[in-house]
Specification:
It is found in: Cell membrane; Membrane. The chain contains ten helices and five strands; from the N terminus they run βββααβαααβααααα. By secondary structure, it is mainly alpha-helical.
C-alpha cells in the first residue's frame, strides 16, 4: 500500500495461484514447464516449416503461422510468471506488471478470435469457390486480414486495460486467480467500476460473438457447398480441410464462453481455474498438434526439409 494524502492506494496485487498446497505445486511445476517448452518448440517449428517449404506458401498456412505466433505470445505472457510463482509463498505482482500481463494476454486472445474468423472465411472460399480461390484470397487480402486481427486486438486490449487500471484500488488486493484477469480485478476497485464493466461487456460481445458469428455463417455456407458435391470422396476431402480448424474453434470458443459468459452466481473459483488452465496452457500446445498430426501436407513438407538438410 502507498499513502497518497488522505488515502492509501494499492501498488501491487497478490495472486492466489493454482493451489495453496506445496506438494501439489511441486508436482505441477515440471508438468507445466514441459507443456510450456513443448508449446514453444512445436509452434516455432511449425512457423519455420511453413516459411522454409514453398509448398506451404498458401493462405491457409499463412494464417496458421500467425496463429502459432499468437499462441507463443499468449502462453509466454502467463506461463513463465505462473511457473515462478510455484516457488513463492506470497505471489506478489506489481501494478504495472499486472497491467502489462493482462494487456498482452488480452491482445493475443482478441487477435486469435479475429484470426480464427479469417481462417473460417478462407475455408469457405476454398470449398465454395475453388476455381476463384486464388483470385479472391490473394496475398494482399491475407495480409490485410492478419493486420486487421492484430490491430483490432491491440486497440480493444488497450482500451480494456486503460479502463480497468485507471480505477482507484485501496484494498483488498488479492486476485483469486493464477494470472491477472480483468473479471477478477475490477471487483477489487474502490471506485465506481460501472463504465469499465460496460466496456468489458460490449467489447467481449463485439469481438467474441462477432467472430463466432462470422465462423458460424462461414460453416453454414461450407455445409451447403459440401452437400452440393455429388461424390462422397469429394465431400470427405472437403470436410477434412475444415476438420482441424473446426476442432481449434470448438476448443477455444468453448472454454472462453464457459469461463466469461456464465452468470456470476454459478461461478466456481476452482472450475474457472481448471477451465483457464485449459485455454491458457493447453490450447496453445494443442493447436500445432491438431493441424499437424493428420495433415498430409505438413508431413510431406517436413520430409522434404529433412531431405534437403541431410
Amino acid at each position: 500500500m502507498e499513502w497518497n494524502g488522505n488515502h492509501t492506494s494499492v501498488t501491487m496485487f497478490v495472486l492466489r495461484g493454482l493451489s495453496d498446497k506445496k506438494e501439489l505445486q511441486l508436482i505441477l511445476f515440471p508438468i507445466f514447464l514441459g507443456i510450456y517448452l513443448l508449446t514453444l518448440i512445436w509452434n516455432l517449428g511449425l512457423i519455420l516449416l511453413i516459411r522454409m517449404d514453398s509448398h506451404l506458401h498458401t493462405p491457409m498456412y499463412f494464417f496458421l503461422s500467425f496463429l502459432s505466433f499468437i499462441d507463443i505470445c499468449y502462453s509466454s505472457a502467463i506461463s513463465p510468471r505462473m511457473l515462478s510463482d510455484f516457488f513463492k509463498d506470497e505471489k506478489r505482482i506489481s501494478f504495472i506488471a499486472c497491467a502489462t500481463q493482462y494487456f498482452i494476454a488480452a491482445w493475443m486472445g482478441m487477435a486469435e478470435c479475429c484470426l480464427l474468423a479469417a481462417m473460417a472465411y478462407d475455408r469457405y472460399v476454398a470449398i465454395g469457390s475453388p476455381l476463384q480461390y486464388s483470385a479472391i484470397v490473394a496475398p494482399g487480402l491475407c495480409s490485410k486480414m492478419v493486420a486487421g486481427a492484430y490491430v483490432s486486438g491491440f486497440l480493444i486490449s488497450l482500451s480494456l486495460t486503460v479502463s480497468c487500471f485507471h480505477l482507484y484500488y485501496c484494498g483488498p488486493n488479492i486476485i483469486q486467480h493464477f494470472f491477472c484477469d480483468l473479471p477478477r480485478i475490477i471487483p477489487l476497485s474502490c471506485s465506481n467500476a460501472f463504465i469499465s464493466q460496460i466496456i468489458l461487456l460490449l467489447e467481449a460481445i463485439f469481438i467474441l460473438f462477432g467472430s463466432l458469428l462470422v465462423i458460424l455463417l462461414s460453416y453454414a455456407f461450407i455445409v451447403a457447398s459440401i452437400l452440393n458435391i455429388s461424390s462422397g470422396k469429394g465431400s470427405a476431402k472437403a470436410f477434412n480441410t475444415c476438420a482441424s480448424h473446426l476442432a481449434t474453434v470448438t476448443l477455444f470458443f468453448g472454454t472462453a464462453l464457459s469461463v466469461y459468459m456464465r452468470p456470476s452466481s454459478s461461478h466456481s473459483m476452482k472450475q474457472d481455474k481448471v477451465l483457464s488452465v485449459f485455454y491458457v496452457i493447453l490450447i496453445p500446445v494443442l493447436n500445432p498438434l491438431i493441424y499437424s498430426l493428420r495433415n498430409k501436407e505438413i508431413k510431406e513438407a517436413l520430409e522434404r526439409v529433412i531431405k534437403r538438410k541431410t
